Amino acid sequence: MSATGFDVCVSGSGAVAMSLTLALSAEGWRVAWAREPESARPAQADVRTYALNARAITLLERLRVWPALKAWSSPVFEMKICGDSGGALSFSAWQQHVAELAWIVDAAALERLLGEALRFAPRVEIVPPLQGAQAPVHASLLAICEGKHSGTRANLGVEFVRQDYGHWGVATRLKAERPHNGVARQWFRSPDILALLPFNQPDPEASYGLVWSVPKARAEHLLSLNSADFELELNDAVLQSAPQAAEQIGHLSVTSDVAGWPLALAQADRWMGPGWVLLGDAAHQVHPLAGQGLNLGLADVDTLVDVLREARAREPWRALGDERTLRRYARRREAPTRAMAGLTDGLLHLFADQRGPLKDLRNAGMTLVERLGPVKHWLVGRALDA
Ligand SMILES: Cc1cc2nc3c(=O)[nH]c(=O)nc-3n(C[C@H](O)[C@H](O)[C@H](O)COP(=O)(O)OP(=O)(O)OC[C@H]3O[C@@H](n4cnc5c(N)ncnc54)[C@H](O)[C@@H]3O)c2cc1C
Predict the structure, then answer these.
(1) Is the CB of 260 inside a 6 Å radius of any atom of ligand 1?
(2) Ligand 1 proximity of 380 Cβ (cutoff 6 Å)
(3) 318-347 pLDDT per residue, tens
(4) 342 part of a folded domain
(5) 146, 208, 284, 298: residue to mutate for ligand 1 pocket, most atoms within 8 A of CB
(6) Is residue 215 part of a domain?
(7) CB 142 near ligand 1, within 6 Å
(8) What is the number of the ligand 1 atom nearest to the C-alpha of 51?
(9) pLDDT-based confidence at residue 134 (cuts at 50, 70, 90)
């Protein structure tokens, strides 16, 4: 603990802030958690399901959240991705020599269970939110995990270079007629992208989380529909995309509210400075087509804690907020984040173009990757590790 108060002040109320607070407390640091009051939290439960990779699950295991969260999660054994003109790509856990490719996790349960774990975490104190860029308590390091609209980031003069996709991610929970068998499916329908993520609630064998990325006007239309009309449009879209898969899945019924999020690509122009550091969506925002946003944020948490632990062992005289230490964190995280942002953005633009030659080329490209075992293996390796 620092002589003057807290070691770290973590600002933010989402999964990244909570994971970081838990991880720092487990390492013996004294943490002030500056979170929004309960009354500022959205009244509606988050209907999203997150695809979390192996690295994220390992972190949640270390934080002792995973045993309870597993009841709200479903493994993915196979991933089938289809283009808009016959291109197809599939990945399976056995081909990759892993037990599962990813876990589909209930977003609301994740936040709730992290919150419960924090109630018992030693050396953690809840403090009021920041005023300007000023922490409410003295701490050697301010860790900013306030999500994409972070006010503290703006107050520090950090530019968040943002490119609006003009698309929204529409999410809901579904129940299917037939079992999903742990198969995740994604269709690049140009311009929209439709993903069905196998889930275990309400039906353990036949539920899905839906993420449907669509142009804003179409999202507004979908969000205005009642459940029955939404179901009609969704089942029709699945049938048009893949009649055979529609047959395997059976009729899809909506089992929750339908909600939408505007999608953008964004990156902070600086990730750290003297005494402060950015993590999660406060540092970067990516399109959810590869299900990587939170995986990147949890990898930030894992890396920052590693870097601080290493500095404590090797250079115990250095303050936690020392720029040299924080620069190591930024160096380790900036490259993989840019690579993932580039990959999702590239795929999105590739499939946004309606011209015939490009359409044929991208579908042929998918089929080529499908045949090139090592390339496929490499792609999945990157996704498992973020
Ligand atoms: C449709 C959709 C599907 C997605 N699917 C996936 C997926 O499958 N896999 C995946 O890995 N990622 C996915 N993501 C991305 C994921 O949702 C985000 O990357 C993740 O929520 C970021 O977490 P965070 O804690 O950094 O930010 P947030 O979740 O935005 O949390 C930040 C919180 O801090 C609060 N806050 C702001 N200012 C302050 C302050 N001054 N003091 C205290 N609190 C403050 C905010 O109100 C917010 O509650 C998806 C995103 C979308 C839109």
Answers:
(1) no
(2) no
(3) 999 999 999 999 999 999 999 888 887 777
(4) yes
(5) 146
(6) no
(7) no
(8) 8
(9) confident
Q: What is the model's pLDDT at position 45?
A: 87
Number of domains in the chain: 1
The pLDDT value recorded for residue 52 is: 96
SS3 content of the chain, % helix, strand, coil (to 5): 45, 25, 30
How many Cβ atoms sit within 10 Å of the Cβ of residue 123? 17
Mean pLDDT of 138-151: 97
Cα–Cα distance, 310 to 324 (Å, whole number): 12
Whole-number Å distance, alpha carbon 293 to ligand 1 midpoint, is 8
pLDDT for position 374: 60
Give the position, in ligand 1's atom list, of the atom nearest the Cα of 263. 53
34: domain CATH number is 3.50.50.60
C-alpha torsion 356→357→361→363, nearest 10: 10
Q: Residue 1's pLDDT is what?
A: 44
Name the residue with tokens 């339908």.
Answer: 258
Task: Write the single-letter amino acid at 99.
Answer: A
* Separation between Cα atoms, residue 134 and residue 282, nearest integer Å: 17
pLDDT at position 3 is: 46
Quick check: is 87 in a domain?
Answer: no
For atom 51 of ligand 1, which residue has the closest CA?
Answer: 288
Range of the domain at 46: 6-74+115-163+265-353
Protein residue with its CA nearest to atom 21 in ligand 1: 294
Ligand 1 within 6 A of 135 CB?
no
Residue 2 has pLDDT above 50, yes or no: no
CB 261 within 8 A of CB 211: no
**Which amino acid type is present at position 206?**
A
CA distances, 287 to each of 147, 162, 213 (Å): 14, 12, 9
Would residue 251 count as lying in a domain?
Answer: no
Q: Could you report the per-residue pLDDT of 47-92, keeping only the tens digit for each? A: 999 999 999 999 999 999 999 999 999 999 999 988 766 777 888 9
Greater pLDDT, 85 or 138: 138
Alpha-carbon gap, residue 379 to 384, rounded angstroms = 9
Q: What tokens does 139 get?
A: 């701490």
